[in-house]
Fold these 4 entries.
Entry 1:
Amino acid sequence: MYPDDLRYSKDHEWVRVEGSRATIGITNFAADELGDIVFVELPEVGAQLAQFASFGVVESVKAVSDLYAPVSGEVAEVNEALREKPELMNADPFGEGWILRIELKAPDEVEQLMDAAAYHAQTAA
Amino acid sequence: MAYSPHTPADREQMLAAVGVASVDDLFADISPRFRPGSFEVPPPLVEQQVRAELARLAGRNRIAEVSFLGAGAYRHLVPSVVNEVIGRSEFSTSYTPYQPEVSQGTLQSIYEFQSLICELTGMEVASASHYDGATATAEAALMACRLTRRDRIVVSGALSPDYRRVLATYCSGPGIEIVELPADLSAGGSGQTDATAGEGVIDERAACLVVAQPNFLGQVEPMAELAELAHAAGAQLVAVVEPTSLAVLAAPGSYGADIVAAEGQPLGIPVSFGGPYLGLMAANMASVRQMPGRLVGATRDAQGRRGYVLTLQAREQHIRREKAASNICTNQALCALAATAYLAAVGPEGLREVAELSMTQARHVASALEAAGLGERRFSGAYFSEVAIRLPEAERRHAQLAERGIVAGLPLGRDFPELADTLLLAATELTSDADIERLVDALEATR
């Protein structure tokens, strides 16, 4: 249900680490809970993210939620496609619906996150 | 009968919980002289006695027979159709729709209002209205701070002093800095915001430049130049406009205003003991998600029929809570409806006539005072419907005229020390030639 190569935060963000870079998105569980996503507020490239601090806002037809950085780092790239097509976060949350890529500041922080099995246990609880 | 749901023991417990000794301590911030001495009210009266008493009280009101007071609120003709429309119980008794989509008529009226404000301002989107012009201006400035992620607001020295006080209140909580871009107040000067004084004032820290058009002194500002000054620093231009002036002056959308705020009272709402007023706000679509307040949108239902909805509600406090675009805004639906009925009734030509007549009469005021040797224009350059006149002993003569039922505008020295002995006189299409003669004669008598 949840890809094994990713790490997960209790706030329902996922992280894919590739070298010093990490790609961040929200899980399909979060996307389903939110419903149809209509807008996402993205940080600017170069912004500094602190682990577990809010970095943006995602808006669906029924709710608005903060986005929390699962790990610290500097924003290297944001998914510009979401500005026009935020629904990608619903349609393909682990793929085309990615939110941003950051340059990791403290790669060890990834260890504090859950693996797929632990995240599955949290969402099933 | 004394009514209190709490026992003395309840009250003691509550006072102890908040750490004060008595109920009076809760009001310690209010000077005792403003607190009621007692809540004893006189014995009941019969209806005729009540009427007589109220008539006696009303008789103490001083009604100006002739008024040249403007300074943000203007006396215009309100066509009877306006009160006919807003007096309909479907509108006058309804509260803000909390199940909005069943109130299609209310939503449509707001949509029409927004469309008219967009047309008037040349902007892409208008809100469903705000409390008044001052709070709309403050909300516009806060919106610019959110859009630019900056926390300094630059205000023109010729913005209404009242608006500046409201801005200061709004900015005191979030810790937003307010700095002034001064206006040229010198005798015979332009009376305009000084676009050459921007250095060190408008830079990469500035979220916006807030300028009124026409400004508080009645003068027409070089808006395109000021927009360029703001934009060069990456700041937004907040244009605070007088709506009837838009029939003759450039629309804010045409000179690059990013946000427009206005007092909508001149559009079909009488001046009346300080209210009610009507805040207008307009902006461009790119900024809409940071716009405060309600927005009505048009859409189609499942059968393809036109319908109206409250749109982009996720900006609002009932959804976004503490992260809402505003938690301190309200709308003025009935006053917005009055403005809608007014604009529909007078149309573009009618509004232009209102603006042109107001300008003509303001020029008549200035020339009559100058011809009589009573005073002269304080500034050079273009003005709209309000004119600053320098006249010796302005405060004393203003007070003397008030005794005779004539309000000779606003003495500017109260808010602008440089402008002592200067009266700000407003004219509208309701200002008659006879009114101007009375003003001149009464001022002659105070020499």
Entry 2:
Amino acid sequence: MQLEFTPEERAFREEVRTFIAEQYPADVRARQNQGVELQKGDYLAWHRILGKQGWSVPAWPVEYGGTGWTATQRYIWDDELARADTVPIIAFSTSLVGPVLYTFGTPEQKARFLPGIVSGDVWWCQGYSEPGAGSDLASLQTRAVRDGDHYVVNGQKTWTTLAQHADWGFFLVRTDPAARKQSGISFLLIDMKSPGVTVQPIITLDGAHEVNEVWLEDVRVPVANRVHEENKGWTCAKMLLSHERSGIARVAHSRVALARLRALAATISEAGRTLADDPVFRRKLTELSVELTALEYTELRMLAAENAGKPPGVEASMLKIRGTEIQQRLNELELEALGSHAALRVRRSLAPGETAVAVHDAIGVADTYFNMRKTSIFGGSNEIQRNILAKAVLGL
Amino acid sequence: MDFNFTAEQDMLRESVSRYLGDRYDFAQRQAMLRSESGWRPQIWRGLADDLGVLGAPFAEDLGGLGGGAVETMVVMEEIGKALAIEPYLDTVVIGGGLLRRWGTSRAQQWIAQVIAGKVRFALAQLEPGVRFDLADVAVSAIQQDGQWHVHGLKDAVRGAPFATHFIVTARTAGPRRDRDGVSVLLVARDAAGVALREYPTVDGSRAADVRFEGAAAELIGEAGRGFEPLEAAVDEGVTALCAEAVGVMRRLLADTVEYTRQRKQFDAPIAANQVLQHRMVDMYIALEQAVSMTCMATLKLDRPADERIRAVAAAKVLVGKAARFIGQSAIQLHGGMGMTNELAVSHCFKRATMIESQLGSVDHHAARIEHCDAAS
């Protein structure tokens, strides 16, 4: 056992840190600093730079565009991205549909779709959840009926993240209503410009337009756009569950947020001293910092196991639970720290051209708090994650 | 970065696990608790002679196995799993840590005695009205004609009835709470001027209040400069205690999962209830975080003081909370059976609860971290 990174790993960290510092788009950074809502182009600008560098899909097999980095190098990469507060790469493309395609896709599908994901030229959204199929995803009702070389798709998807930007979507649809519920599902790639596809915004409680309803009315999808065999779509969906745990704990993001919160607390006056010196608030920060360290080393232990050849398992569920609990706790404490300053302001109150610097951290703190409640709900709610752990780890 | 054990460390775990497992089943432990002496000297003998593990963390040129903090972690986790009461923590970890730092040929003689199983230490640090502050020392040591003598009362000295020697913190200069002027001395249990009032502890061990009335003592290290090596050695002890807690908590969780699968109510195992499953998953998560923090602190014991203190204190904060949550949950999920003295789980709970406060509570160690923050 030892904690140090190797000299090679430290050199790698230097290399990627320098790359990020030099290549990150200045205009995107400026908009982030202003606290304005990011647009499609902001996300894709960074993705395209990474695509050119060959670093947009590190975890993929090298033949499809992966970097061949070790698990530790990928960890360092994620860590540096978080420290630099870069915009996220759209995971629906790189972490979700990409791995399904290179695992189950035909040579034609791989040739057609993977390059656009690697380069950042094509934006993908995920059509899984339905009004009646959330945690119980396999009860989905969207129908796809074969008609010659096409499927005709009808149904409604919901919580479709950033579908308003999407060029393509990957959808789970029911192709055999008579089969047991997991067995009658297929995995379809749908061009979002197809006739019959309608995207309608869902405005979340923080006022943001992040998720959507997607209506599918007699949408004709070529059979060539089905990945894997008919009625084997659940296999594709299931593969994703344990595939990508990289970054799920978001330790580095939370570390950055905690430092920001400490700095903020030092600027707020409370009973004749700063909030940072208030013993009650300080203790909350100390305890959170300890929990974050525990999560960090839990992730590192898993990484070490993975480097030693142990395949990633359901422990990712633990990282998701603790990671989201810690993120939400950070948001709570930020809200507590700002008191009414946070409660009164919404991000949209910023005038065009006005920067967030003047009112600094109050901008969007309450919005963020409300928005981040999603983290314990999405990607398999934390209760579902506990069910998974109960079954897999405790044998219950 | 590497969190994997070597083959030798796995073998060490195996052998300690088997050795203690054969001697610490529930009935054997209960019989020991009821016995007059309250412990079994032959087990200590065996740890020295049959296993050699009393030398696990010492360098080979000192007669040890050439291991370090990771070996201590391995042994202490097994001690926790077995609910063993052998004074490994005070003798090998804290005593050994102080002697290693002392570093003289006299220290080497003591270490040889430790490894051979000929001496057993008990840390005599607490005094009436003092909780955790290592510098809050009223017991005094005075040198006369080249011989040190200790005066005063230490209480709640864990393992005192089994010890051959006490590691006594005493003041040789300065006001009561000053770090300067703290010295560390060894006093033989059978020395003139040592009186014990013995009692059983709630977690199956024995302790004593120890009154020193001019008892002859041997100074470890430098007079008045004992605080820093003491704090460092106690930090090694805190980390080892975290490892012991991990062993106890592993058993608490395993026993609880097993019990809820067997116990039937409403015609089904109670483990079928989601509310119980989720509680057990939360126990598992707390345990895994505790394992991570114990590894982290173990690997940072050699870092500069500020980094070491932050690491060790953070580990104890997390492990202390985990011990409380896992212990209480284990009892809750065992229902009425958890309230009896008839199952191992109750004894694990008692040990876990004592570990929470041993060598510093959650609040004490959180304050240590904040002290580092304020100083940086």
Entry 3:
Amino acid sequence: MTEVAIVGVGLHPFGRYGDKLCLQMGAEAAKAALTDAGTEWSRVQSAFVGSYEVSNPDAVVGWLGLTGVPVRGVFNGCATGGTSLQMAVQAIHQGEADVAMAIGMDKHPRGAFAADPSVVGLPDWYGQTGMFLTTHFFGTKINRYMHEHGISAESLARIAAKNLGNGAINPQAWRRKAVSVEEILAAEVVNYPLTRYMYCGPDEGAAALVLCRGDLAREFTSAPVFVRAAELRSRRYGAFEVQSPSLPLESAPSPTVDASRSAYEAAGVGPEDIDVAQLQDTDAGSELIHMAENGFCADGEQEKWIAEGATEIGGRLPINTDGGLIANGEPIGASGLRQVYEIVLQLQGRAGERQVPNDPSIGYTHLYGVPGAAAVSILSR
Amino acid sequence: MPNPTQQVVADGLFTWPSSEPSLIGSEQDGVLSFPARPGEREVLLARRGTLWGFTTQQFRPPSPPYDGDDTPETFQPYALGYVELPGQLLVQARFTEPDPDRLRIGQEMELRIIPYTTRPDGTEILTYAFAPAEGDPS
């Protein structure tokens, strides 16, 4: 199959930008990616543009240029960025384009996501009685996991402290203040046992990638990053999923497990080969569970890994080196492409103060969320 | 007799009025669902089960859709999670006990019908919740 390379990456840093238009942020990220690739929009033959808040994110072409190429809007919950990446890769595989773009943008209001339960096919009472929220799912899942696998609240706090610490040395992060493990544990509880600092928040921002056929990559950059796998999975019957008024007694693995296995198989590598990873950290508990669901350790081994600092920059497997969702927030259309942006910088040795040592060559990204969807990519030099 | 100042949040969610109410699920091809799906055979769910997992809701949910008569200032946190009904399924529910230190995974839980809000005309709106079962050693 045709190899696909990422030859340019761009980011509109995540945060809060007042009246600034979401599409403007998307256009700035796209132009930054094109500049990074040393090329222009006119060279792009196909684009996939993800957003939740912008109903027609493909309107970004109004800022980039009306060239008539196929441009498609993408929305797939928290896995939107991974879906845009996967679709751009497929467009190149299928021959629709030699050069394609994946662009993501969002601009969320403050606070927990609010919607009518009917948008996901749930009855009104589920919302009226205070159950139609995503955050308590994460509290329930990690509380049960801690009970089953002997995980301490301190490990959750250490993950949050790591990500906020990485954010503090990332000039593009939203939250740039390190917070101590003690302060994180003592902060107000949002959903037991998760405290305020252990959660990401919705915000604004954009990210973009330029991809091309592998044999063309050196026209754009001396350091292409190849997409070895870009896999997407939805939930199976029995998976413990957000917004489930009931679940069967027999359980199935999370879609993360399925997407991850499929990605390792496609890439021909295993978890032990990964040098740097970005895992969905909606909350600190999610990052911890995702370490096992993505095959990096067995259930319960996180306690030891985290105590040893194995997931810190300089550790055995640095995770969320740019601060992850906890330090960057989650504009959901863009979040997965921010993960790829960071891995590309790490593999190219361009990550500045947060650069992972020893010349990392294989990176990993993972998204998970509503509506029970997971996306995994494996990238290498 | 039903209390005239009380109303259920949704019809068909649990048997009511009743001195021993049950949640109403449904079954088709051996697969149980809650809430009941239209067109499927109705199944009354067990009134007792074990606590599978829990968390707390410490902030007032976005409103709408939440329609509690509280405000962000008067909101009283509650606990919620899943109860495993033996041989049936896991049901997501609010719990009557809001203190996570007084809940324990594996403990016996029992169905209750509780008012969760009051309308301006004084009508109490009833929903289902689970309470630590009486006589449970924990």
Entry 4:
Amino acid sequence: MFSDIIPIPEWVIFVIQLILGIAMLLCVIRIIMGPSLMDRIVGLDLLAALIMAQIVTLVLVTGFLSFLNVAVAIAVISFIATVALARYLEQSDDSES
Amino acid sequence: MIVVASGLLIIGSIFALIAAIGVVRMPDLYCRMHAATKAGAFGVSLMLLGLVVVNPSIRVLIQSVMIILFFYLTAPLAGHMIGRVALQRGVPFWKAPEAEGIDRRKTESEDSSLKKDSRSLT
């Protein structure tokens, strides 16, 4: 469903996407070189938040308000994934991290 | 209206960038968790508020407030569980570097926390 959105200037959208892109790149760097598994989980958590911010930008560009439902779903899934990974690492007894 | 919305959006994205920089540059897992949860959640909620200012309809307002509330309710929970698992597995704490030739006076809590084994805390 479209909505009559107040047009945000294009350079603002460009700046936001540039900043969020740099942030996601830094997050991926931490996920790759994280010393322990918990560092990678923290990086994935932040990456999900950044993807939600990108979805807000997508709503601004296209005007589809239905993308906000995607943001809700990503918030729920990132929380459940974090808790499930933490519980899994807590119960398994091998000392490999 | 456009100026307020643009300001909120840009400030929110800058907060998200600060969170990412903190995740890369902080010396310790626990400091990284601190940077990621607080600054990341605040940046995303500022951007959602910017979206509400741009498009003030009741649906966008309800969904944005719902996302923000869910984020602030679940971020401490997830951080707590990750921190507990890290403490259980013995992820090392960061120790501040000492200056050469100067005896740094240790506080009471620091002394007691350094003596304990991190695995025995849980």
